[in-house]
Amino acid sequence: MARIAVIGAGMGAMAAAARLAVAGHQVAVYERGRVHGGGVGRFERDGFAFDTGPGLLHLPAVYRDLFVKTGKETLEQCVELAQVDPASRHVFADGTDVPLPNASRAGVVRALDDAFGAGVGERWSGLVNRAREAWDATRRPLLEEPLRADWQALGRDPYPVPARRGVSGWFRRDGGTTRRPVTLADVARRELKDPRAVALLESHALTHSLDPRTAPAGAAVLPYLEQTFGTWYARGGMRALADAVYERCRARKVRFSFDTEVVGIVEKDGRAAGVELAAGSVAEADAVVAGIDPALLPALLGGAEPWRDGDVRPAAGPGSGPGSGTAGRLTVFLALRSPRPRGAAHRTVVHAPDRDAELAAVFGEAGTEPCPRPTVIVLRPDDPTTRPDEDHEAVTLTATVAPHGPVDWTDGTAAEEGADRLVAAAEAVIPGLRDRLLWREVRTPADTAAATGAEGGAVPGPALAGAEGRFLRPANLTRLPGLYLAGGWAHPGGGLAHAGMSGAMVAGLIVDGADWRGSQ
How do strand 81-83 and strand 232-234 relate by DSSP bridges? Predict the structure, then answer.
């Protein structure tokens, strides 16, 4: 039985802790905050409740596997999950309004043809079929196995780009002899043509902190995953999922210490041997799992970097340029009087009228102003646990924005003006919103940074193949024996499902050794 010290109580870290504990190890988690869950939090006021992180779950199989492998009760016995239908409603600047059914490829084709015109649905279907090829080619090496030393193989984009003039494989020529990778934006314009369908595809990237102008064509797997595996909601919000994982850890005798900051990683005989706590004590361990942003690790290692030459490294910082795959979230919680209308969509995406201006504002192009009308996601769960009674409604508005740093989100004026822009956009789908409003609460990237420790309050995107590896995350193994990385900032990237996968990878590496290559 080995002693395992886990830094942080986020979803990836807890997934690793539960799996390691059931394998017979003694696991202790040290969390600098007061609660578990990392970015998967809950805000409550006056009987209203809101998720402070992800509001929906894709790929629930990741957590089903976690619960099967760590106890008798299944995920559905611990969390009340339900598919959201429609999966999403999309409203465009020209007034087009299209609801997309959940996990129904044929239904999506019909909906797009009805809303955009005959043929658009088939073009979308063709793109999703090619995305399936990309998924099949990379699912195991990208999502089910630890990142290999020869990770450069994943730098090749798996999306099967159709042969076109000016396009050669995964590269295109921009006049002369200049070549650049084919991006998701290239695919959207060339294969979908209709600007609303283009916006639909690009919105999947933006939601995951990705710039479609630089994200590889393989990012088309994101709508494929949603359409194939569905969109799910947990009664009580995604915080209920975090609570269930925490309780599974406790049932497996994982020990949690909250309000306990780790200020150093102890090295002994050339390997990680424990953690130093802010109180001055040292918790000895045979292995350390860091469920935090890897960019913070050099400070815990006395300035030493935990990666080898040639390893994938963290992005240089929020808004640091193309390929970083990070952005922040501006969120507004709305407490509304009067009931939620019957038939209201759980998730509505109100698209920006000027996507170019939005992308320039989010991804830090010099001299840009805040986007006056960003793309806004409106979440209206039909969940009694989110409201004081049936005569009220809890609504969450979210927009992808530049992280703290490029924008000073501690400036109250910037936060309130940003919130005003989100509310103005949401009025298109919530009639009488201002008259119904009791109060609102604003959460910025600066708040995210304070709660999670992520630099700039950035939210990590998922790892993607292509773009010469710029959208990969640091490997779960480090140069220092006994030190492992878990969570959204490590392989295979951000999102609830990906964080759960990282926990499974770390547990496999510790239990079965560095040669472990995923579950068979």
Answer: antiparallel
Would you state the pLDDT for residue 316?
Answer: 52
Q: At what angle do helices 105-116 and 195-207 cross, to 10 degrees?
A: 130
Using an 8 Å Cβ cutoff, are 297 and 262 in contact?
A: no
- Residue 366 has what DSSP assignment? T
d(CA 348, CA 371) in angstroms, rounded, equals: 19
Q: What is the pLDDT of residues 238-267, one digit of tens each?
A: 999 999 999 999 999 999 999 999 999 999
Q: What is the DSSP letter of 494?
A: S
Q: What is the pLDDT of residue 166?
A: 46
The position carrying tokens 């050669």 is 168
Contact 69, 327 (CB under 8 A): no
3-state secondary structure of 154: helix
Could you report the per-residue pLDDT of 145-190, keeping only the tens digit for each? 999 888 988 999 999 976 554 444 555 545 444 455 689 999 999 9
- The separation between CA 399 and the C-alpha centre of its own chain, rounded to angstroms, equals 14
Q: Which two tokens stand for residue 73?
A: 């009760």
Beta-ladder partners of 327: 459
Single pTM value for the model: 0.94
Least Cα distance to 17 among 296, 248, 242 occurs for: 248
Tell me the one-letter amino acid at 386.
T
**C-beta separation of 385 from 236 below 8 A:** yes
Separation of alpha carbons 498 and 492, rounded Å: 6
Q: Is the pLDDT assigned to residue 119 strictly greater than 50?
A: yes
The answer to whether 444 and 404 have CB atoms below 8 angstroms apart is yes
**Cβ 351 vs Cβ 195: under 8 Å:** no
4 contacts 287 by C-beta, under 8 angstroms: yes
Place of tokens 């815990």: 300
Q: Residue 30: beta bridge partners?
A: 7, 257
Report residue 378 CA to chain centroid gap: 17
Question: Residue 204: which of 193, 181, 188, 191 has the closest Cα?
Answer: 188
Residues 6+ positions from 103 with CB-CB distance below 8 Å: 83, 87, 227, 228, 229, 230, 231
In the chain, the percentage of residues whose pLDDT exceeds 90 is 84
CA nearest to 212, candidates 191, 186, 193, 190: 186
Q: Are 332 and 404 in contact (CB under 8 A)?
A: no
Q: For residues 371 and 93, what is the distance between their CA atoms, to the nearest angstrom? A: 15
Q: Which two tokens stand for residue 404?
A: 């703290």
pLDDT tens sequence across 316-358: 544 344 444 579 999 999 999 999 999 999 999 999 999 999 9
Task: From residue 285, give the alpha-carbon distance in Å to each of 14, 26, 42, 301, 376.
Answer: 17, 9, 32, 15, 45
Q: Hey, CA dihedral for 204, 372, 411, 402, is it positive or negative? A: positive
Strand order in the sheet with 171-173: 167-168, 171-173, 179-181
